[in-house]
Design goal:
alpha+beta, about 20% helix, elongated
Length: about 140
């Protein structure tokens, strides 16, 4: 009950503050405009995820000032020769708490083409694996 009462008092304080702003700023004609001034500071966003060494993270929504709003989905994209470190969890979502869903690291790892059977190289060559590529050495 005290939590609900505190929340109600907070809402009432915000309304009071909004009305005070309306009185102080005659250019703001509607209550909606005042809320637009007061509330952005309380809007939940998530921090951008660390960029992987190889690959990219693409966001479904992102603002011009690089804010990531709640509901945004971050998806890992790996370049040719790389694959997701965790092939099941390739994305995360920005949740209401302002935190990202899950705890999977969005990262790409090198594909070892030389481990493929049959070898990608002819029998007279040795396969050498490099980040994102391989070479057949004679």
């Amino acid at each position: 009950l005290s939590y609900v009462l505190s929340l109600s008092l907070f809402s009432l304080s915000l309304f009071s503050l909004s009305l005070s702003l309306l009185a102080c700023l005659p250019s703001l004609k509607t209550h909606t405009s005042v809320l637009a001034v007061v509330l952005p500071f309380s809007a939940k966003t998530c921090q951008q995820l660390d960029a992987p060494v190889y690959g990219n993270i693409t966001y479904s929504k992102i603002s011009a000032d690089k804010q990531v709003p709640v509901g945004t989905r971050a998806v890992l994209e790996c370049p040719t020769g790389f694959e997701p470190l965790d092939s099941i969890h390739r994305s995360r979502s920005c949740e209401e708490s302002g935190r990202w869903s899950g705890n999977a690291t969005l990262a790409c790892q090198d594909v070892n083409e030389c481990a493929a059977i049959p070898s990608p190289c002819p029998a007279v060559a040795t396969c050498a694996n490099y980040p994102g590529k391989f070479a057949c050495l004679r």
